[in-house]
Amino acid sequence: MNSFSPRVNTLLKEMTLNEKIGQTFQIVAGFYHEEGIKIEDLTGPITDETVAEDVLWNIGSIIDNASCDPERNRRVQETFLEHNRLGIPLLFMADIIHGYKTCFPIPLAMTCAFDPEPVLEYARTAAAEARAAGIHVTFSPMLDLSRDCRWGRVMEGPGEDPFLGEMAARAYVEGYQGANEDELKRQDRLAATLKHFAGYGFVMGGRDYDETDITEHTLREYVLRAFKAGVDAGAELVMSSFTTFEGVPANGNKKLMQDILRGELGFKGVLISDCGSINRIQGYHVAASGKEASRMAVDAGCDIDMMGFRYINDIKTLLAEKKMTMEQLDEMVGRILTLKEKLGLFEDPFKGISKERTDALYLCEDHRAKARRAAQKSMVLLQNNGLLPFSKDVKTVAVIGPNGGDININGNWSSHCDCKDSVKVYEGVQNAIPGANVLLERGCEFTARDEALLHRAVEAAKQADLVLLALGEKDCWSGEACSTTNIALTPCQMELARAVVKANPKTVALLINGRPMDLTELSGFAPAILECWFPGTEGGNAIADLVFGDVEPTGRLAMSFPYCVGQVPTYYNRSQVSHYNPSGSPNVWFQLRYSNCSIHPRFAFGHGLGYTKFSYKGLTVPAAMIRGGEITVSCTVANEGDRPGTETVQLYLRDEFAQVIRPLKELKGVQKVTLQPGEERLVSFTITEEMLKYHHRDFSFCADAGAFQVFIGHDSTVEEYKVFELKDEYPAAERQ
Ligand code: NOJ
Question: 374-547 — its CATH code?
């Protein structure tokens, strides 16, 4: 007996085979629109496909990445329901990654807040805007842990650390779906999709879509953690990865999907393929035909074929040839119908769709304020020689650089948002200091130098009291299919930077980009560097807030910044290897080294400055923890500066000995502490046995008795530690 509701079971009894198969098929919304398929709809090559009328009116879901028009979406649903025999509404799905109309910073940036709030606010905002337009499901959050900034998709994910990945996963799911299942029916909620299951972030050489070769240990210890948190938080959907695990494409990988995702992680919701990825099983040459690929996907438990035209063509034959069972199809369809039921679509397929609501919600003051706060919290002050914060008492500010003017600062995964709605860097300065004379000069193109532009930029810099030098990447340089072998600033931007800083040392480099970059040369001469990422709709205002000190920068790096591309992959939670060289120096022979460069990153994970200085003292760690118990560790944090400030206190642990190699350090806790000048506070963390567990040689998940090092500090480079022992029980002498 299945676990579906009476309504779903009744439908399953009434549905014809074609109607059932239709539910498993997803096409682009354009098939239903008067104007047909738009190029923005597409993320795969399906324009040459046609859909027969009888298929069209039985389909289960559409992907709509082009329209934010509630009337258009209502018309599609109305027309569809007029034709669908049993009145089963369509599900509308879309890639809402960091904004629907109000654009928030890119996901990697929001993770840099080391605080779930920006993600939570983002997800609530996006859910309200998108549901009002008639969308029910977002293909977010992307939870792919990655250590390779050549991979363009790092901008969509939570960075290199599983603890931050878990934090993000919970916040996205709660923000989109609400705190419990019943909230999904509300007119301001979306169903969330955890993606891409699993291991996509480990594509070889950072080349998008390339093969992956990770061990089961890496999968379990690092990759799955955020997914587990998302499943536990109740995410309704999971999307499979384009990549392989143990040589088998994820989409047709029974071990990954059935045993691990559904079995061990306990995922009960809808599993959707990535775009055309059932077809791609054949592309990997592990299925000789499309039909065989479909069989593998069905066996792996994949419910929806996103734009692949496989299930619609193959399921009937698979059933006839007894290569799949009707029970399997009913399970797939039952899960899809259950999602529709949970979203309340059977009661009201139009719930919340209204032009009045979208008019009131899109880019409203409240949403903009939340996007601004998220941008403030996401930016990371990488270095500062004291130039920042800068006084607002300035006459002339020069905004120079290819990212300073009317350019897309939203990033590459924001197709519903209009970059024209975003506050640009120069506009942010104008808003902050209405009386100031703001000079705007491009200085160069992103990749091409221009003598005249360079000359004008230098002249503007000479006249200014302050220069904001907006460098970085073009929006389309990161995101899907945007891998690179070069993470440096382009030569013409570097030439511009050298000339501008020489002309005016009161220059702040603002980086607007989607991945950790090689800032080695820039950091050698730039007085201050603020990593702004792609900051979204309120980007310019948030930058001005930080530069002029209305708000203190509190962001911390969720991904290490290497010295150069040759160091990649660079990540703080690297394993303890026997040849480890703590100095990182090239001068230490027969230890881990590069002959020309440190092994450590240029800017470490967790790094980020504020406008004051904090000190740490008095680390206190009890000698032992008894299994099943917990201990409290603490230290005193003091504000040594003359401004109030917020420190992001970070707790790291190291397991001294284990059955398998373990990380040098693992982030286990974060606390934000706001202190007045001269104030100090005792900051405590609770350590439980759960936090000491890892996957053993047989993949059992438990903690071993033994020594653990505790570090509390400003970032992942913290050196001072104290040790406690995890003990199985009190020694007899202590038991009395
Ligand atoms: C392909 C991407 O990998 C995935 O993240 C996205 O959700 C789908 N296309 C749909 O656009």
Answer: 3.40.50.1700
